[in-house]
Every structure is written in C-alpha cells, then in structure tokens.
Amino acid sequence: MKHTKIVLLTAAVVMMTQALGLSAAAEEETSAQSGEESVIDADSLSSDESSKETLTSGDYSYTLDGDNATITKYNGSETAVTIPDKLDGHTVTTLGSGTFATKDMITSITIPATVDTINSSCFYGCTVLEQVSLAEGNTAFTVTDGVLFSANGEDLIVYPQAMEGTSYTIPDTVREIWTSAFSNTKLTDVTFPDGLLYIDDWAFASSALTSLDLPDTVTEIGQYAFAYCTGISEIDMPKDLELIQAAAFAGETSLTKVTFYDSLTDIQMAAFAGTGLKEVTIPESVSTIGFCAFGYEADMVTKVQDFVIYGKVGSQAEAYCTAEDSENDYSNNFKFRSVMSEEVSDTENTAVAVEETESGWQKYGKWILLGAGALVLLIGGGVLIFAGGGKQKKSGKAAKKDTQSVESEEKPEAADHEDTK
C-alpha cells in the first residue's frame, strides 16, 4: 500500500481547545477536511469525497468511485462490528476519514479482505475499542499484538484505546505513527524505535503518558500530537527534529523543561501553549515561531507571567519576544536573555543556555587591557632602541620568546575576567 504524506492546513487549528480534554470542535479538526497533516492514499484525493453523492446502505453511509465504495460513516450502534465487503453490490475498498469516530460503544471491529485503504482518524474516539481484526485474505494490513499496521509494518495505524496494559514497545519497522493512533489510550510508557520519522496529528493526544523519550531520527511532530498529555514533565527533543506543528504539546500542564537542538527550524502556533514552561532556550537555527507558540496559557490570550526566552542576539527567539500580529490581535512582551552558547552539559546530554551577563567593565575591559598592553610594548620598545643603539637585533626565536612572556603576564587577568561572567 503506497501512501503519500499530504499537508492540509486551514484556519481550523486556530480553534484551540481551552479545556484539558478534546472538545467536539477539536475532534472535528482531526478530519482531513478540517486541517490536519494526514497520511492519505494519494488515489483517494483524486476527487473530493464531500462533493460526491452520499448513499446509505443499512448502518453505513458511503460514496462511489466507479464500482468501489468508500465508507464515510458508520451509523449503527453495534458493539461488535463486522464491516461488509459489499454495499448494494459495490465492493468496499476504503474506510474514509473518521468513519467510526467517537463511536464509544464499539468494542471490536473486523475489516474485510477487500479494504486496502484506511484514511485518517478512522477510529478516533472509539474509547472502548479493544480489538481490531482482519478478515482472512486481507493483504493490505496486518495486526500484531492487537495493533493495526500497514502490511510492510512501516505505518502504525491504530492502537485500540481500551486495550489492556500501560506500556507498549513500538516495533522497529515503524517509520510513521498515524493520526490519532494512540490518542486517549491508557498507556503511561511507550518505547519508540530508532528509525521513526513522523508522528502525525493527535497521535498521542490526551493519552496517559508520564514520560517521553523520542528517538533522534524523528523529523516532524504533527498538530496536537502530544496535546493534553498532562503527566509529562520534561522533554529532550530529537536531534534531527525539524518541524513542530501547531499545538503539538499544548495543554501539557506538567511540562516544565524542554530541550531543542540546532536541527529545528519551524515551531508553529500554540505549540507549547498551556504548558508549565516558565522559560525556554530556542536555538539559532529556528527561523519560524508561530504566534502564541510560547509564553501563553491554553486560551492563547493570557500571557505567562515573567516568561523568559533565551537565545542568540538577532535570532528569531529575540524577535518573538516583541512580535506583533494584528491579524490575530496579539502582541508579545517577553523577557529576552542573550546567550553566548548552547553548551552540552558534562552530566546531562542536554543543551544548557549560558547567559551573557557582561558588565560594562567585563564587556570593554579586555579591549582596554589590550590597548594598555600595546602601549607598554611601544614604550618599552622605544627605551630599548634608545638604550641599545648599535646593538645587534635579537633573533626571531628570542623575540618570540619575549613576546610570549608578555602574553603570559596578561593571561591571569584575562582568565579572571572570564570567570566573572
């Protein structure tokens, strides 16, 4: 099964939920039509499902593409659902976005052999779903330990929300975690594989995670991917991470520390709104910071008191501290602290901001010392010339030695100066 990553961005994401749970409006945002980054079969985008005639057969609404049916909604109330392979004589090949969304009575779903495409958020909000199984002959997908994957194991599609257990190890084959795959699950601990690249929208939203250890291979984290995971207190971001999408970590009220690396270029709006962060160090590599990304409560209006941003002078981090956006009616006034470097701690493999707090003497004193040293050399040289008259010049080696002795006299002062920073 070949998939194409489609980025569908609309203003719907602006409707960030204020409560620490997923509202109905938020649930609507998980569909492909309302603005998510979805993993969708490219062929399913050949025409807009919403513009097609919707037909009904029993408990199912569906549309047609030739003689193939795409189920768009399950209207029934069964707890154990076996999806038919035909509707009114048409072969069921696709489960559309949100087909079973918020059907909180379903405990098991069986997918027929004819289905080869599952669109985003198909099982979102199935809070009592314990089991997903495949009819004999289905070669497009596989189920391992109760979890639904693509046939090649690279795409993790859904972990049933009500499945027993609080820990899970994602197989090494997985490269992408699909939209809403783990949302609202009971899992407190998930082990991620090296080689994982993408974590899609709402993937772990409102889950019970208490820690997050992502592999360095992850390059993109989708919208609301870890939103409302209130048990996470610290995150060391992947070293290859390039993009954090809108509201990816919003509502993580226990989050007090986050570490970024210089691969990161894009942090979208409200990415860390409503968290417990009081300060953050943003690397110079970041070229885009969306409005309300840092320093705001979940309402995206109230500013976090005394929020501090560390970064390099002239960087996007500094610009964000005073950024204004008339379209979204907000204006930042955060404290900025310049840093000389983002060093790596000897005891922890995390970036640590080293604040640049030079006083006037510390900032300019070294130049005064250098100037005074040069003046001493000039005066001393004149005395030697006057006193030495016709004496032979020193060899280059001897002259170098004398210069080194002068420099060695200056070094203790320079060292003392650096220690005061």
UniProtKB/TrEMBL annotation:
Residues 27-59, 389-421 are annotated as: Disordered. This is Leucine-rich repeat domain-containing protein. Residues 399-421 have a biased composition (Basic and acidic residues). It holds the Pfam family LRR_5. Keywords: Membrane, Signal, Transmembrane, Transmembrane helix. Residues 1-26 form the signal peptide. It comes from the Bacteria. Residues 44-59 have a biased composition (Polar residues). Gene3D superfamilies: Ribonuclease Inhibitor. Residues 27-37 have a biased composition (Low complexity).
